[in-house]
Amino acid sequence: MTEKKEQTKILFVTPEAVPFVHTGGLGEVASALPKSLNARKQQDVDCRVVLPLHGKVGEEFREKMEFLGDKSVPVSWRNQHLGVFRLEWEGVIYYFLDNEYYFRRDGLYGYGDDCERFTWFSKAVFEALEFMDFVPDIIHANDWQTALVPVYQYAVYRRTFTKTIFTIHNIEYQGRYGTNVLGDIVDLPYEHCHLVEYGGDVNLMKGAIECSDIVSTVSPTYAEELKRPEFSFGLDPIVRKNEGKLRGILNGIDTVSYNPSKDKAIPANYSWRKPEGKAVCKADLQESLGLPVRDVPVIAMITRMVAAKGMDLVVDSLDRVLNDMDVQFILLGTGDQKYEEFFRGLQHRHPDKAVCMIEFNVGVSRRIYAGADIFLMPSRSEACGLAQMISCRYGTVPIVRQTGGLADSIRDCRLGKGNGFVFADYSGEGLYHTVATAVGVYGNPKDWTALVDHDMKLNFGWKKAAQEYIRMYEELMGGKE
User: Fold this and answer.
1) What mean pLDDT value characterizes the chain?
2) Nearest Cα to 33, choosing from 52, 51, 49?
């Protein structure tokens, strides 16, 4: 009889997680990856999640939580309260770390004391372990808000037999602060302060890269790009120094949540087997937004309006697209003021062809995925990207620039059996001509229908990605039996 393999215990540390509280892709990963790992038939992993008990976590979750205990956590000269709560949700155990002074707020990030808040959280992860009845083999931290976790493991807590992984979801945000936070907040032993010092500042992400046993990113191409200065926002020397422990794994999407055949947020359900409902969704979207209900390509963007998302290319080319082509354009998102003003002006200049909603609304985003024909992601850099995978799932063909996770997930259909349209040059001209090509293919119903059918059959679920994470965990544990 074969002896059962011992489970590897993973503590996934994140500042946010769906469905409790989230602002972007990290929140979705923090829910979908642990759920996929725990659902494996082999049951070789026990992955649990720890996050702050943000003020925005709803009462419907709070009333189901179990209180485990409390204590004080030192943040330099301060002592701050820690309460630990446990909640099992969809096959995953979540631990919520409570401190109302730091986290009972309307938002998640963007406060003047963010360094102090997430320093407390990073220390609290270790202090809370005594209440968890869970001894992790691997602590898996994510993005700058948890970057001090591997630093504290290396320099302060030194938990025996505990390994650390740090995943970079977006290297642009590094947790950079003045050196005054070293003694007043971060409070590392003097001989270890150099771990977080970089370029005359304190850089928390730099410390995590140096101290982690493995540094992962959310796509193979992005892992390679981070070694280059144009993608790494100053950290490329540190990435290259540590490239031996760098891994790139393309994330997936939650195909249960993102399922046009069952999505209750869209006006008609459909699938590749019964695609008729997509036309209903398109007409409903056009009518609800005040656009003429016509059989023209509807091009959509759901995005943060920042430079990294390719906004300069859109500004450079979109008026020309709307002037030259019989198309409609829909945007949903918020961001930098200059881009918000551009899109308000765009709608004013093209009232029958463009609708720009300067907001974020999950329900509306689902209707856009379902009702649009073409999805635009001309990013300058994109670590992984989920929207291009979601759009394929809903039969909305993506146009992407060849970078990061976009390059790893979308293949140009002009080169064979691809699933979208891809351009390499970071230029408005490149975007314009790629849109023109896609519009031309739309004009051939047979070819367009075949492309939509192909995209809807693709599987961007978490099964493959979860297997890659398992291999990474096993590599770190040395093939633990």
Assistant:
1) 96
2) 49
Query: pTM higher than 0.90, yes or no?
Result: yes
Sign of CA dihedral 106, 107, 112, 117: positive
Tokens of residue 383, six digits: 């670590």
Domain of residue 217, residue span: 8-252+463-477
Helix orientation angle between 277-288 and 362-371, rounded to the nearest 10 degrees: 120
- What is residue 395's three-state secondary structure? coil
pLDDT range class, residue 3, cuts 50, 70, 90: low
Q: Using a pLDDT cut of 90, give the percent of the chain over it.
A: 94
DSSP 128-196: THHHHT---SEEEEETGGGTHHHHHIIIII--TT-EEEEEES-TT---EE-TTHIIIII---GGGGGGT
Phi, psi (degrees; rounded to nearest 5) at 36:
-70, -40
| Residue 391 CB-half CA count within 13 A | 29
Q: Is residue 386 part of a domain?
A: yes
Same domain, 287 and 242: no
Instruction: Establish if 302 belongs to a structural domain.
Output: yes
Residue 107 above 70 pLDDT? yes
Q: 265 in a domain, yes or no?
A: no
